[in-house]
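Run LacI family DNA-binding transcriptional regulator through structure prediction, thanks.
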Amino acid sequence: MRGRRAPSIIDVAREAGVSAQTVSRVANGMDIVRPATRDKVLAAMGRLGYRPNSAARALKTGRFRTIGVVMSGLSSFGNMRTLEAIANESAKSGYSLALSPLWTIARAGFSGAFVRIAEQAVDGVLVVLEAHEIRASDLVPLAGIPTVVVTAGDAHPFPTIDIDQAQGARLATEHLLELGHRTVWHIRGPEDSFSGHDRAESWAATLRAHGRVVPPLLHGDWSPASGHAAGRRLADDPAVTAVFAANDEMALGAIRALHDAGRDVPGSVSVVGFDDMEISAQFQPPLTTIHQPFDRVGTTAVGMLVDQIEGRDSRTPGPVTTTLVVRASTAPPCPPSGQSRAGSMPGFECGSD
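Sure, done. The structure for LacI family DNA-binding transcriptional regulator is below.
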């Protein structure tokens, strides 16, 4: 007995009472179909057991409707938020994702990720980089494939979108100086991090621009544990009144170390983070931080890539700006002994827990 013929797009159109073009639009994930009509088409597909033939569609259109993503630091807060935005925007544009995470920043692993992506027949690639160890020459295997890079570095020929790391660090540092602190200590990110480097450079430049002493850097690795280790060192120095940590997790560790050492935040030391994680408002005290619009970066990156894939003009935007979010972890420095600080709570002893 001959096998049952697989349902076609015409069968689905007849079952749903719509045109074949409408079924095609729904199958391709296009968002120009009314929700009620889309639901009707999807229900018809389900009843008939229809599955879109992506291979046939690729032969007909020359596109696979798939975006490749090569990403380092998959577990980091910023990259996960960016990836979420990329996935949402890709789906809205009718594209699926093929993810090739980099478990190592070694150049061999980076080149291997490109090979894996090329094997998956993608229409374009988004590269989300974090480390300085990646060279421009490592991107050569992607020549001829539409590519957009999400990174703080620019030593490559591809369109780039990123958050203005220097602007964010300047906002954090100037906020503490404007409160009256004489200088600001900094817990920076890893040595090989684009963003960690740019934030540290901007912090130092901002202090110099205001004629302030630039204290020695303390090095972290983005983790709360590294922030705690740095905070323990800072807690022993009574001259430390203001700290800018290069991310919220290190700020959290530093705050705990300061509290453990009897240094009140913000009574004795003010602390600013960077990222604006959802839980930052729930720290004790709630954390003053720099908000990074990861969703905007991911959405913009997909738009830039889809424009390239579909032959539209694509303009590279400038860096995405950050916003200072002021909460309770920062305050003016303590006045000389015996004086009260303006705006302090009744019964509050400046500089103690």
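Residues 288 and 326 are 5 Å apart (CA to CA).
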